[in-house]
Amino acid sequence: MCEFTCKCANIIQSWNPAVLGLLDSLPYDEEVVVWGRRWIVKTSTLGERHGYGVYACEDIIVEDSASCRREGPTLFPYGGPIYKRKHWNMILTQHPEWKTFALEMDTFAGSNRRHSDGRVIDGDPIRSGNIAGFMNSMVGTQPKRRANCEWVFVEGPPPAPYGQTYHEDHCLVIATRTIRSGDELFTHYEWN
Ligand SMILES: C[S@@+](CC[C@H](N)C(=O)[O-])C[C@H]1O[C@@H](n2cnc3c(N)ncnc32)[C@H](O)[C@@H]1O
């Protein structure tokens, strides 16, 4: 087995969703609790051909007085095995479809100390238990959806009790405006 294959196999085997407070598997059409809040994954309001979406099962209030959108309530992490860019590129040559759920954690706002490797999180909800992977984008929606959350890069480990020893930094999904029970989560990303 080549060095690359060994490395990737180790990363996959050592990924444990529970460390980051995620579930081993995500049932559809059934309420789940992740990071203390209730959610349901079911067919998106975008329509069946666009797959599933994540819906809140409780109100999440964002105070108008929040001075900074990044201070909105934390919903859950964007979690999954983390690869160096060079390893991820090699995976994509064999599994180009894995790109759908990839989050480049060192190339979006919030990071002052960019990791030189350009790390990628494999956020596939099936492989990684990453509920955030089911979030759809408001880009191009008709009728127009407004984003109600965004993902942010955070230096340092996630809040206790999650991932304290495993993570030197992490990505979170936070609410940017009030989300009511029954609302589907939408964020902003280029999906096609
Ligand atoms: C990260 S996944 C989101 C979860 C996806 N709905 C699923 O069930 O796996 C991204 C994929 O969802 C779909 N998607 C996300 N936002 C969309 C949008 N605004 N319009 C149409 N499809 C969208 C596209 O198929 C895209 O490749």
Automatic annotation (TrEMBL):
SET domain residues: 37-190
One Pfam family cited in the UniProt record for this chain: SET
The protein's name in its UniProt record: SET domain-containing protein
Organism expressing this protein natively: Sphagnum jensenii
Source taxonomy: Eukaryota, Viridiplantae, Streptophyta, Embryophyta, Bryophyta
